[in-house]
Each structure stands twice: as C-alpha cells, then as structure tokens.
Design goal:
Layout (H helix, E strand, L loop, with lengths): L5 H17 L3 H19 L4 H20 L4 H35 L14 H17 L8 H9 L12 H4 L10 H33 L9 H32 L17 H7 L2 H15 L6 H19 L3 H20 L1 H4 L4 H20 L3 H11 L10 H21 L2 H14 L5 H25 L11
Length: 475
C-alpha cells in the first residue's frame, strides 16, 4: 500500500485515525498504532512481516544485553551480533544476487542466482534498528525496556517503507508519552497534502514524460532536446517523488503526535554539490556521517585519509540505493565533484557568481541521475552522448518539439515548487501571525482552501491515471 492511493487516503488512514483516537490511554494508542503499522506492511508483503519482527526482536534483545552488561564481554558480543546479523540480512536479501552474478562474471562459474524478492523498506528499517544498538552501546540513548514501544519505533507506518531514516534518539521521548494538539493535527494534514500533491501532481507527470523518452526500446530515436527535457524532468521527478513521500511521512507523524526530522531542504537551490548533499536526503547523509565517516576518522587525519573516507562513504551511498554497478558509479560521480570542491576550497568557489553556480550545480546533479536511471551501461552511454549533442536522431524532431511545448507549464511549475519562495512566504506569514499582526483565524482560511483543493485535485488525478510509481520502494 502506498500513501498516494485512494485505498490509503479513503480507507486505511481514516480507519487508523478513528481507532487511534478512540483509545483512552497512550499505552492502548501505541498498541493499536503498532497493529495498524504491521497491517500496513503486511498489505503488500505479508511474509516479510516475519523479517521485520525478527529484526525488532534481535535489536531489542541486543540493546537490553548491552545495557545490562555494559563494558563486559556479553555487551561486546551483543553489539557484534547486531551488526553482523543486520548487515548479513541486508546482504542476503538485497545484495546476494549482485555478488553472485559478479562472481560468475569474473570466474566463469554458473552459480545459481537466488530467487529472493526484496522486502520493501528493508534498507530503512535495518538502518534504524542497527543505529539503536550502536547508540545504546555508545551510551548516547537510553535502553528501551518496553518491547512494544520498540516495535512501534521500528514498524511505525508513516516512515516504515521509505523514510526518512528515523533514529531512536529522534523519538525516544515521544514513544511513551506525546500529545496531538489541534494545531499540530492540522499542520500534519497540510504537510501530508503538500507531499501528496508533490507526488501526484508533479512527480507522476514528470516521470511519465521521462519514461516516454528514456525507454530502452526508444533510445534509438532520442534527440538532443529530448534527452535534455527528459533528464531535467527526471531530476524533478526524483525530487518530488521522494521529498513528497518524506513530507507525507512527516505530516502523518504529526497527526499521531510524532516529530520526525526533515529530509529535504530545497536542494535545487544549492550553489555547490557540497551544499546539495546537505539539503538532499538529509537523514541518510547524517546517518553515514555519524556511523561510517566519523568512525573511519572523518576529517581528523591527513588529506589522503580524508579522501579515502570520502570514497568509502560515497561508494556506500550509491550501493545503499541499489545492488548494481550503476548505483555505485552514481555515488562515485558525486564523490569526484565533492573532492574537487574540497581541494579547490569553498572560499574560492564562493567568488563565482550565484547565477553561474546554481544552474551549474543542477546540471551536475542532472547528469548524475543518468547513472541512477539506467542499469545498462550501453543505454547510459547513449543518453550521455545525446546530452553532449551527439544524439541518434539529431537535435530535435516532431515528437520532441511537441513534448517541449506541452511540458513547458510543467517545467515552470516544477521550477517554482522546488524553489524556497513558498517556504519563505509561509515562514513570514507564520511569524506575522505569532506576533499578532495577522489573526490565526485568517491564517486558517487559506489553509482550509489549500487542503481541500489539493485533496480534490490529487484524488481526480489518481482516479484518472494508472501511472503512480514510487522510486524508493526498491531501496
């Protein structure tokens, strides 16, 4: 089940809210929310609920052992067990096919590939449970004594299958006690509908145009203009698809009293690749920084070791996204530009005008998405060649010209929606309301209108279209 579906919008979510708020106390609310979350996950993959429960039991038990025997041999064995089993499960279900196929290619063997389906969201909840064990071991978070509260942390449906990566420290105090005020609930609805509109009204339409041009069977008729149009729209598609889902998760969390960390901060307003990765998938970036980069030594050693640490992190960033070489190349693409920026120095780059750096950063990011889109290197080469002016079908043809004209309003809307203009306007509006310059009642009117219009538009779009993919489900 996905958030951007009529089943979720008009059946699962209303039922969940009704059952949740009917419960008299926080303990009963938590139990109901946990059960609902397991039903949500089992809706699409009933078998893999067992794996989710196993991961929860594993790290809950390891956390208790680490806390009970801190500094002793059982605690060290428990953290080692947590790391090995969690990464082992991820390697088995997500990467075993990749490893075996590469062994076959190198050695000439014909080892059978495992016919294992990828459990939805395994990368997200594995990282969450593993970080809990590590943080308990480090002594940075208290141990969770209630298994049901821990299971709620792991399985909570707003962020279960596609993030953001919520660490235990983010919600530790919210699990046993929290309140949902009317204001927070309305803000949650608004944030959810903002994300839903990003996904349904922008990402889906941008993705449909992209798929039309970049389908492997039609790359022979790709033009230069078609390649640029499709890759610009794919950059927008990826952003609105994932940031929209993060917005929906954050909004749903607010409805149930949880406060999740932000995952995107208008990344297409970045003036460097370094800034871009501080704004894009923030929860993953901070996770790899705290659990990989800093333990490797971070910036504390010489430049050679810093480069090594960066290389490892960005290879892992790509590999986390998918079990294929194209994802590793995608991560290394960004490593190269981050390294250049590090060696040149941001103080020198800051001297370049913003009107050059901003589009330049977008183009570098857009070129990187070519690696992300294609698992076939031959297709990647065709699109790269087309972007540089050597397309199979020349510069433009009738199909590309028509698509450019029809997509112009979508491009303008995507550009506007990805800017920080609206966010700055809303922030000023809220500040004025808090200072008493604008009444709260006046603020609620446009909110009600916005929410109603967005819900109607998204519903109409969902009912009238069968194109509703979600990129990050495969991670």
């Amino acid at each position: 089940m996905v958030f951007s579906s009529t089943v979720f919008l008009y059946l699962f979510l209303p039922t969940s809210l009704l059952l949740y708020f009917m419960m008299p106390g926080q303990r009963s609310k938590n139990i109901v929310l946990t059960m609902l979350s397991l039903v949500f996950y089992a809706w699409g993959e009933p078998l893999w609920v067992i794996l989710l429960l196993f991961s929860s039991i594993l790290d809950y038990t390891c956390g208790r052992i680490i806390h009970r025997f801190r500094g002793e041999k059982p605690a060290k064995s428990a953290i080692l067990c947590s790391v090995i089993i969690n990464l082992g499960l991820l390697a088995t279900f997500k990467y075993s096919g990749f490893f075996i196929s590469n062994i076959n290619a190198i050695t000439g063997l014909s080892l059978p590939l495992p016919g294992i389906s990828l459990p939805i969201g395994i990368s997200f909840y594995t990282f969450q449970t593993l970080s809990y064990s590590i943080d308990v071991h480090r002594g940075t978070v208290p141990v969770q004594r209630s298994f049901w509260n821990f299971l709620l942390f792991v399985s909570l449906f707003p962020q279960l299958i596609a993030g953001p990566i919520v660490r235990y420290s983010d919600v530790a105090t919210q699990l046993p006690a929290r309140k949902t005020t009317t204001e927070e609930f309305v803000l949650g609805i608004t944030r959810f509908l903002c994300g839903l509109s990003k996904k349904v009204l922008l990402a889906n339409y941008a993705g449909a145009v992209t798929e039309k041009f970049l389908n492997s069977g039609t790359l022979g008729s790709l033009t230069v203009s078609g390649a640029w149009l499709s890759m610009v729209l794919y950059a927008f598609h990826t952003y609105f698809d994932f940031s929209g889902y993060s917005d929906m998760a954050i909004g749903l969390g607010k409805m149930f009293g949880f406060s999740y960390p932000e995952n995107f901060d208008h990344p297409f307003m970045s003036k460097s690749i370094t800034e871009f990765w501080r704004r894009w998938h923030i929860s993953l970036g901070s996770y790899l920084r705290d659990y990989v980069y800093i333990p490797l030594g971070g910036n504390r050693r010489g430049i050679v070791m810093q480069i090594r640490n960066m290389l490892i992190v960005w290879a892992l960033t790509g590999f986390w996204h998918g079990a294929n070489w194209n994802y590793i190349l995608w991560g290394l693409w960004f490593f190269v530009f981050l390294l250049i920026e590090k060696l040149v120095g941001m103080e020198r780059l800051d001297k370049i005008p913003s009107y050059v750096r901003l589009p330049g950063t977008f183009i570098i990011v857009m070129f990187g998405w070519v690696f992300f889109y294609f698992e076939n290197m031959a297709d990647t080469a065709i699109v790269f060649s087309s972007l540089f002016g050597n397309a199979p079908a020349g510069f433009i043809n009738t199909e590309a010209r028509l698509a450019l004209i029809q997509s112009l309003p979508l491009l303008l809307l995507c550009g506007f929606a990805s800017s920080d203009f609206v966010a700055k306007f809303v922030k000023r509006f809220v500040t004025a309301m808090q200072k008493g310059a604008i009444s709260a009642a006046f603020f609620s009117i446009p909110t009600l209108v916005y929410n109603t219009v967005m819900l109607i538009l998204c519903t109409v779009s969902l009912m009238g279209s069968t194109y509703n993919p979600f990129i990050y489900f495969r991670f």
